[in-house]
Design brief:
By secondary structure, the chain is an all-alpha fold. Helix content is 76%, strand content 1%. It is found in: Membrane.
Length: 356
C-alpha cells in the first residue's frame, strides 16, 4: 500500500470527526455541505482500508465480522439516539432501518458481489455450507422480528406486546451469538475461501493492526455521524421531489452501508466472493441481532408505540428474497443471472420505497 494512501487513511477519520463535532446540530451553507460530503466519501475509503489491514492480521472470517459488527453497533447507537430524541417517524424507525439493511445487504451487496466476480471469471464460487447457514439465520431473524408483529394479536397494530418483544430480543441475540461461534470457532473453514492463505501472506504487526482498528471505528463513527448531518439536506431534497418520508431512511442506510459495499466489491474482484457474502449476510444478521435487543431495553424509556411489523408489500419482498437467496446459495456458485435477479430485487425495493 502506497505511503500517501496510508497517510490519507490515517488523517481523514480524525479530520472528519473534528468536522462532525463542529457542524453537529447546525445549519450548513452549500460550501460546507460539499466539504462534509467529501469527508464522508474519504471516511468510507479509509474504513475499507483499515478493515483490510485488520483482516490481514486476524484472518477471516474475523476481518469481515469486525467490520460488520462495528458498522452495526454505531448504527444501532444512532437509531436509539434518534428514538430517544423523539420526533416524527420514531415508532417505525427501527423497523424501517433494519429492513432497509436486510434488503440492501441480501440483494444489493450480494448482487453486486456476484456481478463483479461473474464478470471476471464467468461464475462466482463460494461455500454453500457457511453461506446457507448465514442466509437461514438472516431470514429466521427477519421473520421473527419484522413479520410476526404484523400478525400477533396481543397488541393492536403491527407491534409486539412487552413479553413478546423480550422473547424476540432474547432469540435474536441468542441466534446471533450462536452464529458468531459457529462462524469463528466451530466451523470456521465453512466461511474462508479456498486459497485464502495467499491473501494473508502479509501480516501487519499487532501495533499496526490495533491502530487500524481504532481508526476503523473512528471512520465509521464519522460515516454514520456525517450521514446524520446530511439527513436534513437529504430530507429537504426528498420532500422537494415529492417522495415519501421513508426514503430518507433508505438513503441514510445506503450511506452507512457504503464501507461494507465497497469492501465486498473489492473482495469479489479478488475472487473472494465468500468474504463478500460474509460481509453482506453478517451485516444483515448483526443489524437484526443487535438492534432488536437494544430497542427492547430502550423501550423502557421510550414513550409511544414501537411498530416492528412490515406491511404486505415488504413481506412479499422479504419472502421473495428468502426464496431467491436459497436458490442462489444451493450449488455454491452463481452466474450473471443470479446477480441480475438480486440486483432487480434491490432495485424493486428502492423503487417501491419511492413509489409505494
Amino acid at each position: 500500500m502506497n505511503a500517501q494512501v496510508r497517510l490519507a487513511a490515517s488523517i481523514t477519520p480524525a479530520v472528519a470527526v473534528l468536522a462532525l463535532v463542529a457542524v453537529w446540530g447546525r445549519g450548513l451553507p452549500a460550501l460546507v455541505e460539499v466539504v462534509v460530503v467529501l469527508l464522508l466519501a474519504g471516511c468510507v475509503l479509509a474504513a475499507v482500508h483499515h478493515a483490510e489491514v485488520v483482516a490481514h492480521r486476524v484472518g477471516e472470517p474475523f476481518g469481515s465480522l469486525i467490520l460488520a459488527v462495528a458498522v452495526t453497533v454505531i448504527e444501532v447507537g444512532l437509531i436509539v439516539t434518534l428514538m430517544l430524541s423523539g420526533g416524527p417517524g420514531v415508532a417505525t424507525l427501527a423497523r424501517d432501518t433494519v429492513f432497509a439493511a436486510v434488503m440492501i445487504t441480501c440483494n444489493g451487496i450480494v448482487g453486486l458481489s456476484l456481478l463483479v466476480s461473474a464478470l471476471k471469471r464467468g461464475t462466482a464460487p463460494f461455500k454453500p455450507e457457511g453461506t446457507a447457514g448465514a442466509l437461514a439465520t438472516v431470514i429466521t431473524l427477519a421473520t421473527l422480528s419484522l413479520v410476526l408483529p404484523t400478525f400477533t394479536t396481543s397488541n393492536p397494530g403491527p407491534e409486539f406486546s412487552g413479553p413478546q418483544l423480550v422473547f424476540a430480543a432474547v432469540v435474536s441475540f441468542g441466534l446471533y451469538v450462536l452464529f458468531v461461534f459457529v462462524q469463528s470457532v466451530r466451523h470456521r473453514d465453512y466461511f474462508v475461501p479456498e486459497g485464502d492463505d495467499d491473501f494473508h501472506s502479509y501480516v501487519p504487526s499487532g501495533k499496526t493492526a490495533l491502530t487500524s482498528l481504532g481508526l476503523l471505528v473512528l471512520a465509521l463513527v464519522a460515516v454514520v455521524g456525517l450521514a446524520k448531518v446530511e439527513s436534513k439536506s437529504i430530507e429537504d431534497a426528498v420532500f422537494a421531489a415529492g417522495l415519501p418520508p421513508s426514503v430518507v431512511g433508505v438513503v441514510i442506510a445506503l450511506l452507512v452501508l457504503l464501507p461494507e459495499t465497497l469492501a465486498a466489491a473489492r473482495n469479489a474482484r479478488r475472487d473472494r466472493t465468500q468474504i463478500s457474502f460474509n460481509l453482506a449476510l453478517g451485516s444483515a444478521m448483526a443489524s437484526i441481532g443487535l438492534t432488536i435487543p437494544t430497542i427492547a431495553v430502550a423501550s423502557i424509556w421510550l414513550s409511544g408505540p414501537l411498530m416492528l411489523g412490515l406491511g404486505a408489500v415488504h413481506i412479499v419482498l422479504l419472502m421473495l428474497t428468502a426464496v431467491v437467496g436459497t436458490l442462489t446459495v444451493l450449488l455454491g456458485r452463481a452466474t450473471l443471472l443470479q446477480a441480475g435477479v438480486h440486483l432487480a430485487l434491490c432495485g424493486s425495493y428502492l423503487f417501491l420505497a419511492a413509489v409505494p
